[in-house]
UniProtKB/TrEMBL annotation, chains A, B:
Its cofactor is heme b. The keyword Iron applies. Belongs to the DyP-type peroxidase family. The keyword Cytoplasm does not apply. Residues 78-219 form the Dyp-type peroxidase N-terminal domain. Residues 44-59 have a biased composition (Low complexity). One of its GO terms (molecular function) is peroxidase activity. Residues 231-406 form the Dyp-type peroxidase C-terminal domain. Residues 1-20, 44-64 are annotated as: Disordered. The lineage of its organism: Bacteria, Bacillati, Actinomycetota, Actinomycetes, Micrococcales. It holds the Pfam family Dyp_perox_C. Keywords: Heme, Iron, Metal-binding, Oxidoreductase, Peroxidase, Signal. It comes from Salana multivorans. This is Dye decolorizing peroxidase.
Length: 420, 420
């Protein structure tokens, strides 16, 4: 774990040739300490503990600006699962170092939980050397997820679904986008805040774990479109219309786990899906609409007038063909079993193109559900068998994480797994 | 150049097994045409010409939402130079294909200018297959820059400054972040808009050029902080305090070129500067403030009270040492020659860390000036000789572009170079 240095040496203000680098490092460290105190980071010098959860207001009043918007981090569930999706999200998957045991995990998760409390409320993290970057939370949330090895290290039985998903024929999975022991999802409407918060968490985690992969995702900027408008992906499609909203009647049944240490938690499937924009470009709007089964303009099913109209899968056109093709994505994704549903919060990605490429874009598909094998896998199996969209999309990464329940001001994320 | 296919074949709605991929491609293309017409993209079927510059309002009224904010693209100067910096900017550098001559360049620039007119006003580009992604310009601007080879291909003399900068000792330049023939800077407050607009421009450019490099940059989200607040970089520093604003008296003299085809244009230096956040972390706040010469909290010079106070470089502390160290960045960057100034619009970058790394972050430094050799180079030479910040920063990319003047509704960007 990296903390601010605590040398007690203190050099002067430098001589004519300037302070040496070494002098700066030593002098600066101590002055930095003073500055941290002056900024009210009074807990910075103490090891993190459950008492580091003061609810002091942010150090700087930026009320009225969008940057000051705060999503409370405490509660039955982790706040990032159901908050209206923020404009930017960075997913970082970590591999635990070999020596990290249950005790070390407990320390790590206490530290991260303390950081989460501070950063999401607009306060600097412990040992935050750039506290000014913490002042614009912009609806910052941090969601932690546990891979199977982390649960093993904690000494608990690993749920059957907490493992790589069954193989699908469409998969072209790369290790650099798959799996991991510990997930940090950091999301905010402000990209600078996401970057800074991610960095603070990784600084405090790096003595315990190394980075396996990191993915940056984005949606439309906050305020650019009407509140609650369904996102569009980079194919131009309305993406996520049929999605159990946190307000719908069976959301709790679909998403929250109700037994054991995961009570109040859920599971998260992350699939990195490359989208071949070049080949998609060769397809006209009619072909695109048939591939999905929805109109591009407004997301309405081909049989309906509005985005949220129920598709009529039985409808036929004048010459007897199905209006929504048999292999359209929305027909293949649908099941008569209402339990085969999950809660999606996808983000777009757009990496710089490689040599000879014009784009390297896609979707960071995410799905929360109580049981990925019972809810996500059957849908994906149907899409794997037949889905027109498969022509233009390729899953290149896949990971499953247990999302532990929320935490309280005197607890930490993962406490139900690791105890005090 | 890629355009929507124009087959006149049209298949039915598919049979029970669904339309073949080929049928979809053909059928879809034609229906896509109909859809484009229905969306009012009435110019889509015609080759671009100077008459493609109707000022029709956006196809969808999103007035009142931030997404509908438009920056007019026409004028004496390209609009992206002086607009208040947007939250996100993507810089793409292209290499011209060998066969591209002056005539082809003229065609390319007419097409791009038409795309710019449409996209910046919230309308779909020509042959835009995702027109819905064009409806939230969010202050979109597109700035074109010309490298030396492009000017040569146009048959014009290349300005002496339009070449790689002189070598500096701190440089560790990589070809994949340096140089190029044609720059597209696409900036908007909405990252989806930046992605879509970049893609549209690249689709239309790819018959003429290949991508050399692409860099994504970001600042705080629009509205997260007070309007006009100086940005912070990922070191946490207030970055860009001393910067001739477009409203200052000598801005025009510093930035705009006043002779030849570049009259009303300028030059752009782009430096990709890696910032070693891990080593920066070892430095306390005092050391950080001495390295720069400004306070981290508010950006005030170490001798002042407010960000915009004039630094007192003569001030000494109680034991006679300079308050602002001799090697502090702001002392070394300053010249008695007021002509050695330029207009900066930096963006942060944050790439996924490589193996063993915790971060891969930095700054996309940009500077506009009438003459980079007379204005930027002397400052960089002083910083190269001595600047404490060099300990933690490394230039890894560098490019210089001529930024042609703005254009009118019946012209195109580059017309003063290429003629009609």
């Amino acid at each position: 774990m990296t903390r601010a240095p605590r040398s007690s040496a203190r050099n002067g203000s430098g001589d004519a040739a300037g302070p040496s680098r070494r002098q700066l490092l030593i002098g600066g460290a101590v002055a930095g300490w003073g500055a941290a105190l002056a900024l009210g980071l009074d807990n910075a010098a103490r090891p993190p503990s459950s008492s580091d959860t003061s609810s002091a207001p942010p150090a700087q009043d930026i009320t009225g600006l969008r940057g000051s918007a705060v999503v409370p981090c405490h509660g039955e569930h982790q706040a990032g699962v159901t908050v209206a999706p923020q404009a930017r999200s960075t997913f970082t998957s970590l591999d635990l170092r070999d020596e990290v045991d249950a005790d070390a995990l407990r320390r790590l998760l206490r530290i991260l939980s303390s950081d989460i409390e501070r950063l999401t409320s607009g306060r600097a993290a412990l040992a935050d050397m750039e506290p000014e970057l913490a002042l614009t939370p912009s609806r910052l949330t941090v969601t932690l997820g546990f891979g199977p090895r982390l649960v093993q290290r904690a000494g608990a039985p690993v749920p059957g679904w907490l493992a790589p998903l069954p193989a699908f024929g469409v998969d072209r999975l790369l290790p650099q986008w798959s799996d991991g022991d510990l997930l940090l999802e950091v999301a905010s409407d402000d990209p600078v805040t996401v970057t800074h918060a991610t960095r603070m968490l990784l600084k405090n985690a790096r003595a315990f774990a190394t980075i396996r992969w990191q993915q940056h995702g984005f949606r439309h900027a906050y305020g650019a479109r009407p509140d609650g408008a369904t996102m569009r992906n980079l194919f131009g499609q309305v993406d996520g219309t049929v999605n159990p909203a946190p307000s719908t009647a069976d959301f709790d049944d679909l998403v929250w786990i109700r037994e054991g240490w995961l009570t109040g938690g859920t599971s998260l499937v992350i699939r990195r899906i490359a989208m071949d924009l070049e080949r998609w470009d060769l397809l006209g709007r009619d072909g695109r609409e048939q591939a999905v089964g929805r109109r591009l303009a407004d997301g309405a099913p081909l049989t309906g007038d509005g985005e949220h109209d129920e598709p009529d899968f039985a409808a036929r056109d004048g010459i007897g063909f199905p209006v929504i093709p048999m292999e359209a994505h929305i027909r293949r994704a649908r099941s008569a079993d209402t339990g085969q549903r999950f809660y999606r919060r996808a983000y777009n990605y757009d990496d710089p193109p490689g040599p000879g490429e014009t784009s390297r874009s896609g979707l960071i598909f995410t799905a929360f559900q109580a049981d990925p094998l019972a809810q996500f896998a059957p849908v994906q199996r149907r899409l794997d068998e037949l889905d027109l969209l498969n022509e233009w999309t390729t899953p290149i990464g896949s990971a499953v994480f247990a999302i532990p329940p929320g935490f309280t001001a005197d607890g930490f994320v993962g406490q139900t797994l690791l105890g005090r």
